[in-house]
Input
Amino acid sequence: MKRPRLFYLDLIRTVALISILIIHFNASVTGYFTLPHKLFASTLPFGIYLGDFGSTLFFIVSGASLYYTAPENFDAVAFYKKRCRAVYPMFWLAWIICFSIRFVTRPGYYAGARTITLILTVLGLDNFAVAAGWVGQDFACVGEWFLGSILFLYLLFPVLLRGCRKHPWLTFAATCLVGVAVHLTGWDARLVAIHLPEFSLGMLLVRIPRSRQMLLGAAAAVLLAVQQVMGGWDTKIVCALFGTVVFVVLILVANLVVFSPVQRACALLGKYSYAVFLVHHVIIMRMVEGFDLAALSRRDTALLFGAYLVFTAMASAALYWMDARVRAGTAALLHG
Output
């Protein structure tokens, strides 16, 4: 039986998506933060980077969504197949289109990429590999580094699900201990481990009653206050605490804005969020090439942001449509 849609998950996913759209726009129009900001700030309270904040919300809401939709008779093999069908076909389609355009319009762009790293692209780990320092250059052209991180967390999900169903608080505590310990050592290039407790937190939050959700949010707020006094805490850990507080606050806010137009808008953005995630960065990077960024006025920056949203929406809708057509055509070809 299909569970009813939780509006607060759509709302939080929307906030995460908007944060990612803004930070990559900021990065592009400021020459990766070498020029002054003219439209949006890139830093939140407690010195938190907006991109880290968006990623944190994304990981928390991913854990919550997967836990909420997991059937009682959970089958790990079926889960992995479903995740592969959800991630890879659209990723490969977007990669083929964007790579073909870049390869033809920028001869020699990929000259420094090793052919063997095409395997990383096929696995969706290309941006992650560059961010982790595995390779200096890859064939990456769509998506972001955190696609690789979420793929690793998908591998762990069956174990986390079993633990969260039987011993939710113990499982969450264990993921916090392991995630923070590995993150502080830097074994994972600080790209995956810190998101393990965030992912587990989402699973816990969607499982427990509202009163305990509020308790978790309050505990995170207290820890934020403590670190503000003490100082020197790891910024990713501070971001995880801040993301927890915001997540819980947005659960409450969702009850105040639960109107049909808002619900439909958030559901629509949630539907196209993966397509947006794949194409938005390559679009804004290409858009700013013709501008003198140092001379760009605030008005023109705002106009550029509007055009960026329009082109991203168009490209995402087109990618979503093409993905559906390719899937249908492939199914017809294989099965008749």
Summary: The mean pLDDT is 94.
